[in-house]
Amino acid sequence: MGKRKASDDTNPNHDFCEFLSELAEYEKNVTRDIHRYSAYRKAVSVLASHPTRITSGDEARKLKGIGEKIAKKIDEFLQTGKLRKLEAIHSDSTNAAINELTRVTGIGPAKAHSLVKEGITSIEELRKHTDKLTHHQIVGLRHFEDFEKKIPRQEIEQIESVINKELKAMDHDLKITICGSYRRGKAESGDIDTLITHPNFTSDKVDKKHKNNMLKNIVTALEKCGLVTETLSLGESKFMGACKLDLEHPTRRLDIRLIPYDQYYCCILYFTGSDMFNKEMRTHALEKGFTLNEYALRPVGVTGVPGEPVEIHSEEDIFDYMDFPYKKPEERG
DNA sequence: ATGTGAG
DNA sequence: ACTCACATA
C-alpha cells in the first residue's frame, strides 16, 4: 500500500470523521503536535463507533474524547458545511509541500519539515538535492511515480511464479506465500508482501547465522535472476526493496519476511489482513481467553499471564482454537 | 542510545 | 500496537 490513507464510509458520522482525520494528519505532519494529533484521533474513533447521527456540538460533547473545541468545530461544520481552519490549511503552501514530500517512501513528517525549512517544497525541487537524502529516500524518489501505481493482480501472479521458480531451485522445502490484498483476491495491490519459511528453521532453534544468510541468499538469488532491482533495507528477518518483471513493467515495492516455521500461520493471518479483520479477530481472541499476535496464539490464564503458544499447523487451526467461523482470505474485508 | 520511518 | 532496519550520535 502507498502512503495514502483510506477511511470507512458506512457510519452516520462519516463526514465529521473525515474532517477530523484531516485535522489529525495536519497536526501530525505539519505542526508536529502529537497531543493535538492524538486528540483528533480519539475523537474520530469515538465518532466512528457511535451508532447514530450527531446533530449538534452539544450532543457530541457528551462523548468521551470530545470537548469544547471539537464540539464547536462540529457546530461550524453543521451550520456552514465547512471549516475555516481547514480552508486555511488547504490554502497553506507549507502544508501542501509537506504533504507532497511525505509521499516519497522514507520521508516522514520530520524529514519533510526540515526539507521545507531549507526551501525544498516539491518533488521536482527535491530531485536537485539528492545529497540531502538517505539511500532509502533516494530510491523512493527515483521510483516515485512507479511506487504510486497500483499493481494488477496478473502481474503479481507472474512475479510470484518467478519467485517460486528461483527459490524452489535453491531449496525445494521453502514455503512461499504472498499475502496482503493480493491474497484476499483483490484485482490490484499497492505492494507485494512475501512471507517465507523453512521446516528446519524454527524459533527455538536459534541459528542466527544460518538465518541471517538465508534471507541474504534469497535476496541475492532474486537479484541474480533480475527480479529484484533495489534494496531499501535488509536485515536478518526482513527485506524491503523493489522488483521489476521486465522492461515493459514498472518498478514495484517488494517486501520479504523470513518467518520461523512455528510462527508461519499466525504471520500469514496477520499479513493477509485486512486491518479491520485483524482487529476483529484479536478482540474475539481476547473474549475466548486467548491472545493473538503476528507470532502466536496463546491462552491467557486467570492471572492475565499468557501461556505457551498453541501449536498451529494451518490458518484454519487458529480459527478452530478460538471457535471463530473460518473465513477464506477473500472474505476478510 | 535515540529518533525516524515503514508496515 | 508493535517490531524491524536505518542513520546519527
From TrEMBL:
The record's annotation in InterPro entries points to: DNA-dir_DNA_pol_X (IPR002054), DNA_pol_B_palm_palm (IPR028207), DNA_pol_lambd_fingers_domain (IPR018944), DNA_pol_lamdba_lyase_dom_sf (IPR027421), DNA_Pol_thumb_sf (IPR037160), DNA_pol_X (IPR022312), DNA_pol_X_beta-like (IPR002008), HHH_MUS81 (IPR010996)
Q: Which domain of life is it from?
A: Eukaryota
Q: GO cellular component annotations, sorted alphabetically?
A: cytoplasm; nucleus
- Which enzyme class? transferase
Example GO biological process term?
A: double-strand break repair via nonhomologous end joining
* DNA-directed DNA polymerase X domain: residues covered: 11-333
**What cofactor(s) does the depicted protein rely on?**
Mg(2+)
- Helix-hairpin-helix DNA-binding motif class domain segment(s): 58-77, 99-118
Pfam short name (any one): HHH_8
Which residues carry out catalysis?
A: K73 (nucleophile)
Catalyzed reaction equations: a 5'-end 2'-deoxyribose-2'-deoxyribonucleotide-DNA = (2E,4S)-4-hydroxypenten-2-al-5-phosphate + a 5'-end 5'-phospho-2'-deoxyribonucleoside-DNA + H(+); DNA(n) + a 2'-deoxyribonucleoside 5'-triphosphate = DNA(n+1) + diphosphate; 2'-deoxyribonucleotide-(2'-deoxyribose 5'-phosphate)-2'-deoxyribonucleotide-DNA = a 3'-end 2'-deoxyribonucleotide-(2,3-dehydro-2,3-deoxyribose 5'-phosphate)-DNA + a 5'-end 5'-phospho-2'-deoxyribonucleoside-DNA + H(+)
Q: Which UniProt keywords apply?
A: Cytoplasm, DNA damage, DNA repair, DNA replication, DNA synthesis, DNA-binding, DNA-directed DNA polymerase, Lyase, Magnesium, Metal-binding, Methylation, Nucleotidyltransferase, Nucleus, Sodium, Transferase, Ubl conjugation
* Major place of residence: cytoplasm
Where does the UniProt annotation locate this protein? Cytoplasm; Nucleus
Looking up Gene3D superfamilies in the UniProt record yields: 5' to 3' exonuclease, C-terminal subdomain, Beta Polymerase, domain 2, DNA polymerase beta, N-terminal domain-like, DNA polymerase, thumb domain
A single MF term (Gene Ontology): class I DNA-(apurinic or apyrimidinic site) endonuclease activity
Question: What's the Enzyme Commission number for this chain?
Answer: 2.7.7.7
PANTHER family xref list? DNA POLYMERASE BETA (PTHR11276:SF42), DNA POLYMERASE TYPE-X FAMILY MEMBER (PTHR11276)
Function per UniProt: DNA polymerase that functions in several pathways of DNA repair. Involved in base excision repair (BER) responsible for repair of lesions that give rise to abasic (AP) sites in DNA. Also contributes to DNA double-strand break repair by non-homologous end joining and homologous recombination. Has both template-dependent and template-independent (terminal transferase) DNA polymerase activities. Has also a 5'-deoxyribose-5-phosphate lyase (dRP lyase) activity.
Q: Tell me its family.
A: Belongs to the DNA polymerase type-X family.
- Its name, as the record gives it, is DNA polymerase
Q: Give the originating organism.
A: Exocentrus adspersus
